[in-house]
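hi support,

uploading two proteins for the ticket. first:
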Amino acid sequence: MLVPNKHGTSRDYRFGFQGQEKDNELKGEGNSLNYTFRMHDPRVGRFFATDPLTAKYPYNSPYAFSENRVIDALELEGLEKILYTIKREKDAEGNITKTVTSKTLTAPGPLGSGAAIKFLNYGVVSYLYGNETTDMKTFVSFYEGNKDKVYPSVEGGNPTGGIGHKITDDELASFPVGTELTTTQIDSWFKNDWERMENKANKFSIIKGLGDNQKDALIDFAFNGLEKKLKNFKAGDNETFFLDYMKGENGVKKKRLGQTILFKDNTKYLFDFLPSSTKRDKREEKLSKLYDSQEDKATGTAIPGTATPTN
C-alpha cells in the first residue's frame, strides 16, 4: 500500500529521482529536478549546466549524470569526492619534503561521500575524514571551537570567548571569566576579528593577490595568534606552507590539514582524526583498505623544506 501523498506519482510529493526536489513549474510535472549545483532533466538523463569542477576533469562530459553510470551509481551533487595523501618526510640529512596528492573517486567510499586524508607525518600514519561545508564561519568554529562562555586562555594572558576571540583590555570589565555569551555577541566578535585579520593579510602584496580561497586559508591560519607568521609566506609557496606549523595536539594538526585542502582545492572540509580500529569502530581499517586498493595515479609536487619545521 502506498502512503498517501508520499510517493513519486503524487502531485503533493515534492521529491523525485534520487530524492531530489522537483521543480514542476519549469518543464512540467517531474521533468526538472533541483540538484544542489545544477538542474537535471530525468527524461534525457542530462544536466543543463556544466559540473562546477569540469575544468579539473577534461576526460568527463561536463553534462553527464554520474559519469553515465545511471544504474549502479549516484550523482554526487556535481562534486566529486577525493582521497588525499599528505606527507611530511625527513631524509638522513635532515631535509624535509612535503607533498599533497589526491585521487578522485567516482562513487562514495565506505564512510560516505566526504573526503579522506591519509597523513604520513615522519613515518607515523593516521587517517582523517570529513564532510564539506560552504560556510567560512562554520569552518573556523569547527577547528577553533565556539564557546558560549568566557574562559581562561590556555596560553595565558587575557581570557577567550566565542570563536577564538581574545578579550581585549577594554572588554575585560564587561566580560570577565564565566560570562555567558549571546549568539549576537559571538557573531559580532567573529565578524570584527575576521575583518581585522583580513586587513592585516592584505598588507602583504603576495597575499592580497591570491584567490579568495587561498586568502581565506591564510586568514584562518593567522586567526588566533599566528598573524606574525603571515610574513613567512613567500612567492612560490603553495598549500604545503601550512605543513610547517603542525606543532601541538591533534586539534592543531587537523586545522592545518583543513587549511591545506582549502588553499589547494577551494573546499572547506571539517576533518577529524579517526581512532585506531577497534571491534566497534572499523572506520580507520576501511579507509586503509580503500587507499591500498586505489591505483597510485595521484599527482602532486614535492616541495623541499628545511632541516627543522617552522613551529
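and the second one:
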Amino acid sequence: MLNESEASVIELFACTIDPSFLRMTENKSPLYARSGERGDKRSDVGVSRYSCFAFLPILAQTLPLMKKYFFILLMISGINAFGQDFKTQIADYRKGYMDDFLKDPRSPLKKDDLQFLRFYDADSTYHVTAQASVLVNAQAFIMPVFSGTGSEYVPYAVLKFTLKGKPLELTVFKSTRLSKIPGYTDYLFLPFIDDTNGTTTYGGGRYIDLRTGDFKDGSVVIDFNKAYNPYCAFSSGYSCPKPPDGNRLALTVEAGEKLFGKEVKH
C-alpha cells in the first residue's frame, strides 16, 4: 500500500506527463487536495498544469521516492505511446491498402465499394517476431488456385514463432514469375488459413506480403494486422492461390482484414 508521500510523487509525475491526470483523480488525490482546488469544478488544462508545477517543492522532500518510481512512470508512458503509434501505423497501412484498389486497373472494387471493407482493431499482440530458416535449393512447385491455372512458387523460408502461447510454423514463398519483374524481385508471399476462415474472415484464407529485406539476423517480423483478402473474396474471375495445408494455423487470428461487408456474386 502506498503512503501519502509515495502517492504524491506518482501523481505529480503523472500530472506533468499528462495534465488531465488531476481531472481523473479529482478529490481522491492528496496532491489535488493540497492544490487548494478541492471542490472546484474547473477542469481546464491550464488549471491542471498550474496545479502540477505549483507543488514542485514536494519533489525536494521526496527525492528518494522519485528515483524509485521515475522509471516505472516512464515505462507506463512509453507503453501508451507505443500503443498509439502502432494504431497509427496500421491505420496508415490500411489507407494505402484501400488506395491501391483504385490504382489497380484489374481491381475488383470501385471507390464506392471501399466502405464495405472490414478490419479487426489493430492489436500489437499479433505483431510477432519469427525465427527464420531460409531454405537452400528448395524445389519449385505449382501452388493450386481456386479457379484457373496455378502459378509456380519456391519455398523461401520456414518461420517459427509463438502466438497466444502456442508454438506455430508457416512457410513463406517466392513467386518465380514475379521475381523476374523489376520492382518485385524481392517480393515474398505468405498465405495462411486459421480458425476464423468462413466465419469472420474469408473462407479461402488470407495473405501477408513480405520482402527479402525484412529478414535480419535470422528473424523476421510477421504482422497479422496486415493480413488481407485475395481478390477472390470480392469477385469471381480471379486466380487466387490456395494456402498450402502446411500453412494452416490451429487458432483464431483475430487481426487483419475481415469478410467483405457486401454480398459477393460468384
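thanks. also noticed: Helices lie at 4-17, 21-25, 30-34, 45-54, 57-61, 63-103.
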